[in-house]
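Narrative of activities, Objective 1.

The group set out to show that a structural description can be obtained from nothing but a protein's sequence at a throughput compatible with the screening campaign. Below is one input-output pair from the validation batch, recorded exactly as produced.
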Amino acid sequence: MFRVFVNYSTYIVLIAFLGVSCKKSSGVNISTQLFAVGQYVQDGDTLNSKNGSNGRSIQGTLKAGQTYYLASDFADAVVNTGDTLLIQNGVTVLIVGPISGSTAIGTQGHAPGIVVKGTFLSIGTKSSPVLFTVQNTSLKSNPLLDPQSPNNDPAYKGYWGGIQGFVGSGDIIIKWTRLEYTGGLGPLNDPYRPAKQRYGIWYQNPLGHFVLEDSWMYGTRDDFFRVTGGMFHIMRNTFEKCGYSAGDGNIKSGSIGDIAYNLVIGATGNSFKTSNSGGLSPQSNMNCYNNTIINSGYRQANAGEGGSIDFENQGRGKAYNNLLVNCKYGLSILGSGSTTAGADTTNISYGNTYNYGDNLSITQQFLPSGFITLQKNTDINGGNATVPGANNPQFINYPLPVPVGYDFLGGSYQGNYNFHLMPSSPAIGKGFTGFLPYSKVRVDPIFGATEITPPGSDIGCYQSNGSGNYHN
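Output recorded for this entry:
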């Protein structure tokens, strides 16, 4: 084994070789399993501390397979401007200490998180993902007949502050990482969310890159992610129980990118939403394709909002090949004349939407009331007159129509269900592939998107050829 320093986009990166082979066609093959940025953070260290109201500065590398801690009564861990925090595969970060959730916590009066002013890299692998979770918290409940209400379900409490990018931060790159129980209160001195519920992940740099791929988010209090400026790539993830009474996967002005091959179960608001609010350039532009969205929209406090995919307030983009199952509302394109400004309808295209609903209250909102969404001839179950239960998408393991007594509030995480499509599914072969991803982020095994998956020929996030979402 030997080591070499490589200069990459202003970073000094320490690469550890597991093996090297030279080929004329591809040059040197470098393993991405072991690599470091700067020095290793001491094994078993606590990442935050009580010292100072602005949190503890942290940089360098969290070593593969090690456990680190965020103390609930300490201040934030902060990656300062110009610094990089790299998290290697197999790292576990535990939030420990006296945890109450959704209210002021500990001596700092807030739930600590990781504040990013520099660059944040969480590089797990399929066989060895990174995990952020809460120690000694009751785990997931029955996904189908859930006796708990959102008020006492720990998923919605907001036990820690998540990943909070400051305006003008470096890139935030998250791969094969599991983030659980985010959305805790920000401190009083937080410049963006003072004493308010933080977002699961927040990115705020129109010139930077935000990558969230092949990862999981379980339980958030508000938005599961928010991009208020940035080139984004949100692909092949699983989102479960995200948002308490509000919260979306939220794209604002200054943002352009792709949201594709994601599985969303039990989101409270719009699973994916674009709005050009914020006054940044470029105009918000969301390319949303081949997602599977299930049982979403039922905890949204505001009537007429939430459920699947939303374009409003001069947001623009594309929406194709999305599979919407038992969501409160279908694809929502907001027109002018509403209390909220309408979408940029001149620059929106959509189609090949697969809607499924078990009852009339769902099927009658496939084209949501108060919106201008049109039925397309490429849609399956596109109209509000669709008979409940028509065109079952035929998941490998999920009961449709759902059993008597089913609670859409409770059926909000994957559990042992399998949302791959049976070979006889009507969704197979019905996707539209005549457009390209925006592909605005760099492609790189560490510093960018690992793979930008193009539109698939099957509707939904799981493709019959094995591509798309890689989660079981």
